[in-house]
Amino acid sequence: MTSIRRDILIGLVCLALAIALPIVMPGRYVITQSTLFFIWAIVVVQWNLVLGIGGIFSLAQMALFASGAYATAMLGFYWKVPMLAAIPMAGVITVAVGMLIGLACLRLRGPYVALLTLAIAQVMYVLIVNDTDCFTTVGGCMPLFGGVRGIGQFGDIGLRALFPSKWYIAHYYVGLALLAVAVTISIVVIRGPLGLAFRALRDNPGYAMSRGISRFKYQLWIFAVSAFFTGIAGGFYAIHFRVVGPTVFSFSTLLFLIAMIVIGGLGSIWGPLLGAAVLMLADEGMRELSDYRNIGLGLLLAVFVIAWPNGLNGWLQRSRTSRG
């Protein structure tokens, strides 16, 4: 119960600070970058469930993110589905994609899972980029998935109309609400019976299965939970930027996000959020040094892997223990 109380306290403090940020720092750039942080934080918090808690070395998270983004855009563009309905529908579609990937990975372990999930993402990227046949002629030749041009003009959730000059602040609070829900679900999973089952399968799969814990059942569960919120994040990303294209499959973005988990602390509750904040701040600090930006981020990751292999969360726990 002490851990749960601590998690609740940390969550409430972080939520209060985030709610106050637009009041203290109302600049548009800060708000929009913070909204992007919320989107990436949702992805890494949910990826941590699969990678850190489930012990499944999946690299499919950007494919799931793209599935949610494309599903939202296509529902709005082709079928005129209101965005408030399209986002949860995209989450359900992403769950189906995630479970298919989970089924494909059931018989694989370690690097083979990484290779297969990365291959799936690359196949999806190639299919979209090479999609050049006209699916509709509205506004010119439009491929089904938009091809290299992507899909735009699929609508939004109405906040731009309600708040013409402050819509980005409204989007900020929507992103914050989505992140709060995603983190809450993550805490429930990690601290509850599901988390115990996932960790047992990760640490000693033979013993766990001998005690009646079904690897098939729980692997699909963790893929489904993670996929839903990742798809929701993808849908909100599409609405926030008003366009979806093949850049959502970017390999550099995938490495950027996995670095957040490693730096924050793999398998911890608050580590991915810490890592996301540190990497976003470091990325902003090196934005003017474009030639050395990737080198700097790589060096930062190397330092953490060597000096603090358990990430920021592990370092903070050791510091607290040594003081106690």
Automatic annotation (TrEMBL):
Main subcellular localisation: membrane
As for subcellular location, the record says:
Cell membrane
Superkingdom, natural source: Bacteria
Keywords assigned: Cell membrane, Membrane, Transmembrane, Transmembrane helix
One GO cellular component assignment for this chain's record is: plasma membrane
Question: Which sequence ranges are marked TM in the entry?
Answer: 36-57, 62-79, 85-105, 112-129, 172-198, 218-239, 251-282, 294-312
| CDD domains per UniProt | TM_PBP1_LivM_like
List the Gene Ontology MF annotations in alphabetical order. branched-chain amino acid transmembrane transporter activity
Q: Which InterPro entries match?
A: ABC_transp_permease (IPR001851), LivM-like (IPR043428)
Q: How does it sit in the membrane?
A: Multi-pass membrane protein
- What protein does this entry describe? Branched-chain amino acid ABC transporter permease
Originating species: Mesorhizobium atlanticum
